[in-house]
Please model this.
Amino acid sequence: MNPVTDHLIPKPAKAGIRVCKSPDIYAKTVDVGDTDSKRSTVAVFKTAPERVLDDYKRLMEAAGLRASLDPSVGTIVKNNISWHIMYPSANTTPWQLEAVLAYLSDCSFKEVVVVQNETVVTSAAKGERNNRYVDIYRRFGVKVLHNFKPQEMRFVPYRPKARMNVLDRIYPDAIRIPDYFIGRNIVHLPTVKCHIYTGMTGAMKNAFGGLLDNSRHYCHSRIHETLVDLLAIQREIHPGIFTVMDGTTAGNGPGPRTMEPVEMNVLLASADPVAADAVSCRLMGLEPDNIRCIRLAHEQGLGCGRLSDIHTVGTPLSEFRFQFRTGQNFASRTGRLLWFGPLRALQRLAFHTPLVYIFIFASAFYHDRFWYPILGRTRVERWLKRSPWGALFQRYKE
Model:
């Protein structure tokens, strides 16, 4: 028993993935299989800037958000700020945030709160301003909390009921999670993009910043197993989990920052994070079974990662013909040497001692002072001028 957190843990949900039957109006657009209600459902909609907010509403209804969350408890909206610089596909889009907050308000969900995290190289405050979230928070009267501010929430010891793959060995003294997360629904807002260490990043990876503190870089050498462990913990502490993913502009290449923005014009949502990530892979032209965290989560019964077993509604997946490739950059090559390569034996010295600040400085300098001024800024300016999504972004208040 854990005296600190046991009283906060909600009653366990019924076994299996919680899915809901979709309305009949979407049944004609099913892409995979039949309408077996035992299967995980992912809604996939093509969209355009002039109707994106309406499409998001239809998307969340089709994927069953209301049936997937407990309306009697608070709901956390977990943004994805991969970079405090506004870069297309790197961060939750303002229309994604606006649509979700509007829908939760329309459905009368109580105590909706946005929770932000920081990384050692990313500022949440700058990210909120640069990605134009602040006015949206103000319009909906939503409180914003930060998991790195002790006055707003505390990291407390948590003893998972599920068997851990690696977290109990990475943190032998105690696995610590934010006390505020326990007993509340969570809605993840990732984007469709590649990632240098996990191949792709989406619903499962979005929990990494929320549930772990700034020592989470200890987990990078076993990142896939870590994400599966975090999903098991989420299924214990959250009455409901839901993902609303934005692929209006997706990220091809060495993400989550140094990517080539690609107009994909798609939205997806699901109550099953594993299924959401598997379908996101398919949209990018990646094979879900090659993404270790998806495969492990499927094998451990935490979700459905097999496309043939996922029930999709909306736009047929066959309409998407993208072929993304993650690739490498300076940060990934350095990280692979230390986390996965011949210098792995030195990672405790490199990342568990003050030497880590050398790598923090190098990463911040590379992304903010080198790559962005040389390549990134040109891509952003081109997107703002030429993409209809860039034009929509500029209509949001700073």
About this structure: The CA atoms of residues 218 and 352 lie 8 Å apart.
